[in-house]
Design goal:
Keywords: Membrane, Transmembrane, Transmembrane helix. Belongs to the LemA family. It is a single chain. With about 180 residues, the protein is mainly α. The protein is built from six helices and no strands. The protein is rod-shaped and about 85 Å long.
């Protein structure tokens, strides 16, 4: 009888540790996924000064557009929460649309190898940003499911793990990847 009780207690402890560790792993995965979004947004932000300077060389009188891109980039690099990063990301996407629309009016610019290279890098980066957002939301879904379902919900408080917010773009127009085709 003693062995049965001890065996049941050992199994219960193993189960509790496994659930605790699962929650911790999911929480770390969500943190890592958000960090990847920030890495890709930083990569995009780093491309923007080069893109602006290239376009400026051809369209110097479009100062308002350049200022909007620079301001949006500054906001995007200082955002920290998921909601702030998503809002800044949307604003920067809109500003880039304006910059790319300006570029559309300059055939010499569209033919520039430097501009074409930057355009390709921006397109690749946008794809990576999109993938990173999706991966983040997938990991958040897994974590939130674990936090809200039995039996792991009993261990969420002990593990100090809460449900996380999804990466959502507030403005429907911001959900579209900027068109960088020329």
């Amino acid at each position: 009888m003693e062995f049965i009780v001890i065996g049941a207690l050992v199994l219960l402890v193993i189960f509790a540790v496994a659930q605790y560790n699962r929650l911790i792993r999911l929480n770390i995965t969500v943190d890592e996924a958000f960090a990847q979004i920030e890495v890709q947004l930083k990569r995009r932000a780093d491309l923007i000064p080069n893109l602006v300077e290239t376009v400026k060389g051809y369209a110097a009188h479009e100062q308002g557009t350049f200022d909007a891109v620079v301001a949006a980039r500054a906001k995007s690099t200082s955002a920290s929460t998921v909601a702030d990063v998503a809002a800044a990301d949307g604003a920067l996407t809109n500003a880039l649309r304006g910059l790319l629309a300006v570029a559309e009016a300059y055939p010499d610019l569209k033919a520039s190898s430097n501009f074409l290279s930057l355009q390709e890098e921006l397109s690749t980066t946008e794809n990576k940003v999109s993938f990173s957002r999706q991966f983040y939301n997938d990991t958040v879904r897994s974590l939130n499911t674990a936090v809200k379902t039995v039996p792991t919900n009993f261990f969420a408080g002990f593990a100090k793990v809460d449900a996380r917010e999804f990466y959502e773009v507030e403005n429907a127009a911001d959900r579209n990847v900027p068109n960088v085709k020329f």
